[in-house]
Design goal:
Blueprint lengths: L2 E6 L17 E2 L2 E2 H10 L6 E6 L4 H11 L9 E2 L4 H11 L6 E6 L7 H14 L1 E7 L5 E3 L5 E3 L6 E10 H11 L8 H9 L4 E2 L13 H8 L4 E16 L3 E3 L2 E3 L3 E3 L7 H13 L5 H4 L12 H14 L2 E11 L9 H12 L6 E6 L5 H5 L2 E13 L2
Bound molecules: cytidine-5'-triphosphate and magnesium ion.
The site of cytidine-5'-triphosphate has 21 residues, from helix 3.
């Protein structure tokens, strides 16, 4: 039996108010979309899975895969439509014709469990449909245009979620005639319309299987995870010399001298990388990027910072914030601080509000005060999800 899955992620996530598609929200350090795909891949019950995305999100998706992993069952993404139903239909058409059972799932439901997945598949095998549902715990009233209120019998009410599983060919046919039906807010609706009924599946886990819709849902979802925090510090010094460029936090600063070193000698980023590696207890930059290695000669330290970030990510850590202090008598660094923060934020794929860069002089004291060199210190906080 071949089981396929359509994961719809082509919405705009307007109600979440993030300013980008909510399925890319980094929930406890991993995107909602990848958490959903991982949950669907767990246990190996689904053979192939097609993600449906808005065209403007393809690039973000491609960037996600090398960072967060690529579950083996993934097919290339397809482009969604202006409504959820159109997006589902696009995904259904991309599955193999010999698919027996198809699950349709919202990318915005990352807490789907293996029990829910196996339950809907089993029911779809027996009844041609298996729609995950839960008893309604609130009392539900129906109102009409005249303001008449009627209390519905809760015993007969069910709220439905995704995944919804179906016989593939039957669902494809139902969509072929109904994908443009404005009333089709879920897949079961079109199946009911085409075949007269659907089978509702009950399984444990529906209380947790919420659809992340508004900001409060995201905050509550974050609180479900446990975290471990680590701090780290870094310190570095480079000598100032003539005939070199002065690069600090990836910013090239006009000055009569530059810092001497094997790479671009970006002392500030070196301190930052050491702080990150220190917090994760992964050694230091000398170990990661030895200055005997010709590959690192003249290299931009932003490239090394990116690699350092990958190393801490691989160990399960993400950066919460960082604070870099550059100790430098001359030149004046104030005009460059904002761009330095931007460079780091872009490189670490974090928000600039989590990145601080400061500069100070030493009242002409010491080697920094005399202009013989520049030193930098950094402190970071890293976060690791432990469950
Ligand atoms: N979806 C889709 N194509 C659409 C609309 C929605 O693939 N044209 C997907 C969403 O990405 C989401 C799921 O359908 O995973 C459920 O929809 P919803 O929670 O409403 O998400 P959005 O439409 O993105 O959010 P909003 O309605 O707040 O804009
Ligand atoms: Mg929507």
């Amino acid at each position: 039996m071949k089981v396929g899955c359509v994961v719809v992620a082509a919405g705009r996530g307007e109600r979440a108010g993030l300013g980008y598609n909510k399925v890319f929200y980094p929930l406890a350090g991993k995107s909602v979309l990848m958490r959903t795909l991982d949950a669907l891949a767990a246990g190996g019950h689904i053979d192939i899975c097609v993600p449906v995305l808005n065209a403007c999100d393809f690039e973000a998706y491609e960037k996600l895969l090398p960072r967060e992993g690529r579950p083996a069952f993934l097919l290339p993404p397809v482009q969604g439509g202006s409504t959820r139903a159109r997006s589902v239909y696009a995904g259904l058409k991309a599955l193999d014709a010999d698919t027996d059972i198809v699950l349709v799932h919202d990318a915005a439901r990352p807490f789907v469990t293996e029990e829910i997945i196996t339950s809907v598949i089993k029911d779809a095998e027996i009844y041609a449909s298996g729609v995950i549902s839960a008893p309604v715990t609130d009392t539900v009233k129906q109102t009409d245009a005249d303001g008449h209120v009627r209390t519905l019998d809760r015993a007969y009410l069910r709220s439905v979620q995704t995944p919804q599983a179906f016989n593939y060919k039957m669902l494809l046919d139902a969509y072929a005639s109904g994908a443009d039906d404005a009333a089709a807010t879920d897949d079961a609706y079109l199946f009911e319309k085409a075949y007269g009924n659907v089978h509702l599946t009950e399984a444990a886990g529906t209380r947790d299987n919420i659809k992340l819709t508004v900001m409060e849902d995201f905050l509550a979802a974050e609180a479900r995870f446990n975290y471990e925090y680590r701090t780290g510090t870094g310190y570095d010094v480079h000598r100032l010399t003539e005939g070199r460029r002065l690069v600090l936090c990836g910013e090239c600063i006009p000055y009569e001298k530059g810092l001497l070193g094997h790479s671009d000698a970006d002392v500030a980023l070196h301190a930052l990388m050491d702080a990150m590696l220190g917090a994760a207890a992964l050694g230091d930059i000398g170990r990661l990027f030895p200055d005997t290695d010709a590959r690192y000669e003249g290299i931009s330290s932003l490239v090394l910072l990116e690699e350092t970030n990958r190393a801490i990510n691989k160990a399960g850590f993400t950066l919460e914030n960082c604070d870099v202090t550059i100790v430098c008598q001359r030149p004046k660094l104030a005009p460059y601080i904002d761009r330095m923060r931007q460079n780091i934020a872009i490189c670490l794929q974090t928000d600039v509000s989590r990145v601080s860069v400061k500069a100070t002089t030493t009242e002409r004291l010491g080697f920094e005060g005399e202009g013989a060199g520049i030193s930098a210190q950094a402190a970071v906080l890293l976060k690791k999800v432990t469950q």
